[in-house]
Specification:
3-stranded mixed β-sheet; alpha/beta; Rossmann fold
């Protein structure tokens, strides 16, 4: 049973998984449309952001997208997903397209890679993201960006990393930065709480803990909205662990790895985006952290997107006609988020 579940989870991150050999450099997906009035985009690839003794020649690099000819631009650091074990910042053009879109809207976009498990364990993933942030704060002015306006956007495991970086300030402090250096945070289908033990989920069925193919495909565009009147079906029950090779088995380590454990007043503004057909537990995690942040007086907003799944919710965000792309741009620009 566990083997079957791991296969399903592998398919969930299949578009993120072809990495290491740089096959993900191949542009299988493109930013097909650019909003009217958008800027031309300049791309700089493979910029090293960390050169310490533990330097990784592939993972400690980032790509940068900039609106051509613009200066004093707000900055977005976009962090890829992949269950902390696979993926990169290009993903055959899927993440690249999102970066290009945001740059066309006037943002400098920094897209780092980070080391993956099982080569490293938590907290090395978030430490790498903190290093990329510190590099951005120090160097982004050379590329036309504003070091005093750096926002974070993360998808899936990347959503976990940006939320943890913005809520537990120890990782920024290690790099000589602080929580106040973060302007805003957007988590897209982010993992905001690391479960203790092996939570029970279901293959198939329509329960809130079901993994189905339509949680994963299509990679872009809309699917059929989830039906609220479907008869409950539990599917095939299995126990799934995130793996000791990622977070270890200590419940306290997992608790401290959860952004929900660090909510306090005066956090940066957050936008939580969830999908109609997301992977199990992600929607309730976003609702939980959104609720707790509001109780602490923080600026927190929640957007649930119909007809999207765990992948299409981010990979379709490449034109202002897309509701997720529009919501992200509106939030980062301090505008009212357009309803979906």
């Amino acid at each position: 049973m566990l083997t079957a579940v791991m296969r399903m989870l592998a398919f969930a991150v299949l578009p993120l998984a072809l990495t290491g050999c740089r096959i993900t450099d191949w542009r299988l997906w493109h930013c097909d449309e650019r909003a009217d009035g958008g800027y031309d985009v300049v791309q700089i690839r493979d910029i090293p952001y960390h050169g310490g003794n533990d330097h990784d020649r592939l993972r400690h690099r980032l790509d940068l997208f900039a609106p051509k000819g613009q200066k004093d631009c707000p900055v977005v650091m976009l962090v890829h997903g992949g269950a902390w074990i696979v993926g990169d910042n290009r993903c055959c053009g899927l993440y690249t397209s999102v970066g290009e879109f945001l740059a066309s809207q006037g943002f400098i976009v920094v897209m780092p890679n980070y080391r993956l498990s099982p080569t490293v364990k938590h907290p090395e993933h978030v430490r790498d993201v903190a290093r990329a942030f510190a590099w951005s704060k120090k160097n982004i002015g050379e590329f036309g960006g504003r070091s005093d306006s750096i926002s974070l956007v993360g998808h899936s495991a990347g959503g976990h990393l940006v939320a943890l970086l913005a809520s537990d300030d120890r990782y920024l402090k290690e790099q000589g930065c602080r929580q106040a250096d973060i302007a805003k945070v957007v988590t897209i289908s982010g993992v905001l709480r690391i479960p203790d033990g092996s939570p029970e989920i279901f293959l198939g069925g329509v329960s809130p803990l079901s993994i189905r193919w339509d949680s994963i495909f299509p990679l872009r565009g809309d699917g059929a909205p989830a039906k609220s009147d479907e008869a409950p079906s539990r599917g095939w029950a299995v126990n799934v662990s995130l793996g000791s090779y990622i977070f270890g088995d200590d419940p306290e380590v997992r608790r401290l790895a959860s952004a929900t454990s660090h909510v306090r007043p005066n956090m940066p503004p957050f936008l939580f985006i969830t999908a109609d057909k997301d992977l199990p537990m992600l929607g309730p995690m976003a609702e939980e952290m959104h609720r707790v942040m509001r109780l602490h007086g923080c600026d927190a907003r929640l957007l649930h997107v119909p007809g999207r799944n765990h992948n299409s919710v981010v990979f379709s965000a490449i034109t202002l006609r897309d509701p997720v792309a529009r919501a992200i741009v509106d939030f980062l620009r301090d505008s009212r988020i357009t309803s979906v």
